[in-house]
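Q: My labmate handed me this sequence with no annotations at all. I'd like to see what the chain might look like in three dimensions before we decide whether it's worth expressing. Could you predict it?
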Amino acid sequence: MAGRVAGKLALVTGAAQGLGAAHCQTLAREGARVLCTDINGAGAQATAAAIDAAHGAGTAFAMQHDVTSPKDWDAAIEMARDKLGGLSVLVNNAGVGVRGNIETCTLEEWRRGFAINVESVFLGCQKALPLMKDNQPGSIVNISSIAGLIASDTMPGYNASKAAVWMLSKSVALYCGKMGWNIRCNSVHPTFVDTPILDGMVASTGREKSVIMDKLARQIPLKRVGEPREIADGVLFLASDESSFMTGAELKLDGGISAM
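A: Here is what I predict for the chain of 260 residues:
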């Protein structure tokens, strides 16, 4: 079914690589025009250029964007207005891992994790809603994690920040409904996905990637790590009108790990 988001106007953060790039590519393939943003401006531009090469000039645009900066959010929303002509889909994808257990996680690392993982989502929703109100129906998709629903003794900062994204999404959904806007807000909860963030985790162990990947896969009922396109397909569903009666919900894309 082609054109599932035809005519949609989307802004995706963290678009330089991994899940963000996959979200942009999938939305563009199905008919959306996309603004790709990332603190890595060159990487965001590369994602947009690849999309334009595949789908035609003017399908995608890019900008450097520090998601923790209110001013950068203002600039991103203004660019969406100018280049896309509005905004109907916001994908708050940018995020980082937070190292350390409760004894070893530093306050600096904790605050950095919350700034990028949580405050950016708050800012994105707050800054985007005025423009999205003019482009209804709209959909906000916040990338959380299965770690926001299932705790681990090794990652309190990541658990707590991703859980905050989960609950923030519900609050935004209820607010939009109360205001009578046709703007939905849902969260997505992947498990381990083969992206550069996972590469960083592997590198920190000093072991071969295949060994770590096999270890991670054994924790998942489907016995494999996820692929970016599988998460992007979930984002596509939430961005499309196919999910028009879904808001304040969480989409678990975890290979069954939360069923255990």
